[in-house]
Amino acid sequence: MKSQSSLTTAAKAVLVLAIALLGFSRSTLAQSTGSFSLITPNFDVSLLQSVSFQYTLSQGPNANTFYFTIANTSNNSQSSWVSGTQPTITNIYFEDSLDLLSSPSIITWTAVAPDNAVSYSATSGGNLPAGQNVGFDSDYLFQTNPPPSKNGLDPGESLTVAFQSLGTYSSLLGAINSGDLRIGLHVQEIGPQGTSASFVNVQAVPEPGGALLLGAVGVILLVRRRRQLP
Predict the structure, then answer these.
(1) Which residues pair with 205 in a beta bridge?
(2) Separation between Cα atoms, residue 230 and residue 226, nearest integer Å
(3) How far is C-alpha 156 from the chain's CA centre?
(4) Does residue 6 lie within any of the structural domains?
(5) DSSP assignment, residue 222?
(6) Cα-atom radius of gyration of the chain, to the nearest Å?
(7) CATH number, domain containing residue 98
(8) Would 192 be classed as within a structural domain?
(9) Dihedrals φ, ψ of 215, to 5°?
(10) Burial class, 208, CB count within 10 angstroms (exposed 0-12 / middle 13-18 / buried 19+)
(11) What residue spans of 30-178 are helical by DSSP H?
């Protein structure tokens, strides 16, 4: 009786832990991240050594709302940069070939010193510079409010925008990875001369919430099996 009681107590503890893991995993499961690739021809790629950008697709607060977070992940300690010439994301474009998205809006942003300023407006259309090289046809534009060098996304800053969609998270992720849903960036103030270039996203990678989910389910099944043993 003592061993069975100990097993029951341990099983309850493990079950509580598994449920906690399951809840955590579900909250992080619907999120994927990706980076961007240069599309501007004849650009001096040596200027991009410390330049990088990232996007994240995540499920919003309801089934029809989805968030896209665009982040400037460039290394802002690059010694060759001078004041005012850190790479700044000035315009963000969305190409929606399958008409999955609607009702664009701005949710939140992160600003850092010294400017502490991020300001964008949502609109439709737009024309990504050099986008014709990859057949990019913009449907939505998040445009920096003047002056763009001050209000755009500097290193360490990010912008989260929202869209409504009748699709699912999986269908949006599939469209991104098939090239039917693309994100374009126009970036200014790159390098000491403050040149500009355009970038388009590459495939997104789901974050590792799925492994936690499967692990939690496995623990629950194991506990149930042990409780059924005579």
Answers:
(1) 33
(2) 9
(3) 14
(4) no
(5) H
(6) 22
(7) 2.60.40
(8) yes
(9) -65, -40
(10) exposed
(11) 148-151, 169-178
Write the single-letter amino acid at 40. T
Q: What domain range includes position 190?
A: 31-206
Q: Are 223 and 59 in contact (CB under 8 A)?
A: no
Q: Where are the beta strands (DSSP E) in the chain?
A: 31-38, 53-59, 65-72, 88-96, 102-110, 120-124, 140-144, 158-164, 181-190, 195-201, 205-206
User: Is 230 part of any domain?
Assistant: no
Q: Is residue 53 part of a domain?
A: yes
Full pLDDT tens readout for the chain, 230 residues = 555 554 455 445 544 444 444 444 444 458 999 999 999 999 999 999 889 999 999 999 999 999 999 999 998 665 444 444 689 999 999 999 999 999 999 999 999 988 889 999 999 999 999 999 999 999 999 999 999 989 999 999 999 999 999 999 999 999 999 999 999 999 999 988 889 999 999 999 987 754 454 444 444 444 455 555 55
Number of domains in the chain: 1
pTM listed for this prediction: 0.79
Where on the phi/psi map is residue 222: left (φ > 0), alpha (ψ -120 to 50), or beta?
alpha
Quickly list H helices, the chain. Answer: 2-29, 148-151, 169-178, 209-228
Q: Hey, what are 65's tokens?
A: 């709302």
CB 89 within 8 A of CB 186: yes
